Amino acid sequence: MALIVQKYGGSSVGDIERIKNVANRIREYHDRGDQIVVVVSAMRGVTDHLIGLANQLMPIPTEREMDVLLSTGEQTTIALTAMALHSLNLPAVSLTGAQAGIQTDGVHTKAKIQNITPTQIHDLLDAGNVVIVAGFQGRTPDGNITTLGRGGSDLSAIAIAAAVKADLCQIYTDVDGVYTTDPRVVPNARKLEEIAYDEMLELASLGAKVMQSRSVEYAKKFGVVFEVRSSLNANPGTIVKEETTAMEGVVVRGASLDKNQAKVTLVKVPDHPGVAARIFRFLADAALNIDMIVQNISHGSDSPSTDLSFTVEKVDLAKARKLFDGLKSEIGFQELVTDEDVAKLSIVGVGMRGHSGVAARMFETLAEAGINIEMISTSEIKISVIIALDVAEKGLAAVHKAFVEENTTGA
Ligand code: ADP
Ligand code: ASP
Ligand code: MG
User: Fold this and answer.
1) 246-411: what CATH class?
2) DSSP assignment of 384-399
3) Which ligand approaches the C-alpha of residue 157 most closely?
4) Which site from 5, 161, 213, 242 is most exposed, i.e. has the minimal number of CB atoms within 10 Å?
5) Which residue among 8, 44, 150 has the greatest number of ligand 2 atoms within 8 angstroms of its CB, and so is best to mutate?
6) Residue 106: its pLDDT value, please?
7) CA–CA separation, 157 vs 219, rounded Å?
8) Does the Cβ of 176 fall within 6 Å of ligand 1?
């Protein structure tokens, strides 16, 4: 008998037929004698629909009420999933995040899990029930409902698996596993048998929405090994786990594209000590997350100036523009230029640590495809470039072909 946590995402519970399909799968495990905790998302499209309703009333809705609203999506699914199990004569009880003992901080719409007290979950399991928990939500110590950021049901599942010390954690979605890149964008993408936490974390934060990046961070921290697999077939999925030496044999594990970036350039910024510090302090105080930064060489010797570019999330662009419009004379730059038509293309792999020439090979591949590179950033296990949005998918396909399909290593 195993204790299993299974998470079903929005498309896996997208309509009543899919929910019945989920119930049948749960029954298979239940009939084997396993104890099962099921974490579910809102039905596909529901969270977006609720956000749309809120936006009709307020462009920036009150965050506490937003959480009350969004949590209803998952609450609908837990009740329907429990009913689907009851119709199969299986004992099942649904729990909201609060009832399941998920305590968070008070940062509405992107709360962090502080601790989980799974007493209720264990009691219900011990009484023979399948326990269905609402993903994406928790409660603050003083009783307010919170949500964990978009895609947050992944985090609920991983955190519950850690709290109940599950033998197995399965993330069911609408693809067979983690692929070398989004299989809906690059049909030649390959399913990975396994991937290291750090690689999954980079791919997720660089645009692969198959797992929420915070959930991967949590899994790494608490050592939760999990499998990403399809709710629509019985194929084995992808195991996400701690890095092994064998994994270093592959230079590029995968590639991803993030179309949610925008580029901001401050033209002719005075080039003397302290200016960059002030600019990025203003951004930090406005809670704007900056990713890539490029500063050009200085021009002019009497009062040298430079162009400074950085990327922000597209949703934050209006905020960044407003911030710098108000700081023009204070900082003393000449012009603010923004570009939303960009994308960030990245390649990721722990094997890059031991290889040289990977960046050169990536840039050559893009050059051969006639794609201009606007910004570059690298870390030990990833290389990212900013390119024009209209050639982003072409760039992804070219890079995927070079590193994955043709398996060039760069060296
Ligand atoms: P769920 O609703 O189950 O949480 P998501 O829509 O959040 O599912 O994530 C699954 C989707 O992630 C897939 O349909 C796929 O298009 C996309 N995706 C992006 N990158 C990858 C990748 N590298 N491997 C697999 N799927 C990916
Ligand atoms: N329903 C939430 C969302 O759409 C959480 C999730 O699906 O994981 O972001
Ligand atoms: Mg998801």
Assistant:
1) alpha beta
2) EEEEEGGGHHHHHHHH
3) 2
4) 242
5) 150
6) 96
7) 10
8) no
- Provide the pLDDT for residue 297: 84
Is the Cβ atom of 8 under 6 angstroms away from ligand 2? no
Ligand 2 binding pocket includes 97 (Cβ within 6 Å): no
Q: Residue 371 has what pLDDT?
A: 98
Q: Please tell me the predicted confidence (pLDDT) of residue 300.
A: 79
**pLDDT at residue 2 in the model:** 96
Ligand minimally distant from the alpha carbon of residue 229: 1
40 φ, ψ (degrees, to nearest 5): -120, 150
- 348: Cβ below 6 Å to ligand 1? no
What ligand is nearest to the CA atom of residue 155?
Answer: 2
Architecture of domain 3-174: 3-Layer(aba) Sandwich (3.40)
Which part of the chain is CATH 3.30.2130.10?
246-411
Instruction: Delimit the CATH 3.40.1160.10 region(s) of the chain.
Output: 3-174
Altogether, the residues listed in the chain come to a count of 411
User: What is the per-residue pLDDT for 187?
Assistant: 97
Helix, coil or strand: residue 406: coil
Cα–Cα distance for residue pair 221/237, rounded to 1 Å: 22
Q: Is the CB of 42 under 6 A from ligand 2?
A: yes
Burial of 366 (0-12, 13-18, 19+ CB in 10 A): buried
Q: Which among 224, 124, 129, 120 has a CA at the least distance from the CA of 168?
A: 224
What confidence score (pLDDT) does residue 403 get? 96
Low-confidence ranges of the chain (pLDDT < 70): 409-411
